[in-house]
């Protein structure tokens, strides 16, 4: 902690990016919103960046095209640039994806991929998500205990996004292993994330080659086949673009949902009155509270703590603060979504909250493409858990739980739970 010079009435500035901060960052974000809403901070990587914490400023910054997604605009020495994205993506030649590019390339690639996430396509995918959800719960329901992160929240979106991409079922466990290393961040062996990225890149390149060789008809409607077909029909997708797009859809398409489910279940277990309201509504066949509830869980303790990197392409002002061309800017979604200037009683979990234009999936042209699928997975996972395991409870003291390291995402490492074992009937 440090004191605020010149104003003894202001409480001391909080220390950022410690393990204590990771456990509960919201008091620190409240201080920043009040006293330093656009704050220059030194990140754990050593890179300095501006943190934007108020809702109005955050919404403006997310839509401001003077804040580029392209790391080439970063005014840092070349050796530092590898510290502002996904570890290993530069060496693996995976930079040309939606999180790193601006219009017109962003517009072109997003248009191609958005076909996989239309409401109709997501609705068609709902039975598969339900099937995966039930199968995973079947794996631990008779035990009476589980780690909901590793046994449920993590594998569900991995298998779902692999199906969507067109990864063969027999290869999906390899993806699960690689993805597991990628979300462990500081918890795994040194260089493990970069090695997993390299393996994933090699596999995707080979899979794309096999699919291109075997693409003989229009019936293959998985996402990778669609990207190949678009490339072959004049959309001018390079092989690197196809590989990078498949990679980022997998990477961005699973960890956010892991955290949505994990953080969401944890919040419900810590707020039993809200959890009972949801269970009662589901028992009555009312899904309205489930839909507003998932939005509230996204706002209250969402899966993405900071929006991905942006870089000022010119001098500009955000929230009254001058930002120089080349400076990195990080919009703190977790802080903006608890801004009392936008949300009534922002630190209260209210599953029935209606006026809830949260920023959990971003805003503007980079709004999360896979949000409809993530919402489907979150709603299906929570509803099925609460119906099948109605007495679900924490299996550890909350003080013992640890949050994963890493700058962008917010999620628990483990979530041990206990419940009455489910008796398997002959029909099952």
Structure description:
By secondary structure, the protein is α+β, with helices and mostly antiparallel strands. 47% of the residues lie in helices and 8% in strands. The chain is built from 15 helices and ten strands. The strands form three sheets. A five-stranded mixed beta sheet has the order 1-2-8-5-3. Strands 4-10-9 form a three-stranded antiparallel beta sheet. Strands 6-7 form a two-stranded antiparallel ribbon. Strand 6 and strand 7 form a beta hairpin. The longest helix has 32 residues. The radius of gyration is 22 Å and the shape is globular.
Number of strands: 10
Q: What is the strand content?
A: 5-15%
Number of helices: 15
Spatial ordering of strands, largest sheet: 1-2-8-5-3
The description of the largest β-sheet is: 5 strands, mixed
Distance between the termini: 56 Å
The overall average pLDDT, rounded, is 86
Class by SSE composition:
alpha+beta
Gist?
This protein is α+β, with helices and mostly antiparallel strands and 428 residues long. It has helices spanning 19-23, 26-35, 55-63, 105-114, 119-138, 148-153, 155-165, 172-184, 192-214, 223-235, 239-270, 272-283, 288-301, 333-336, 371-388, and strands spanning 38-42, 48-52, 67-68, 145-147, 310-312, 316-318, 321-323, 328-331, 393-394, 416-418.
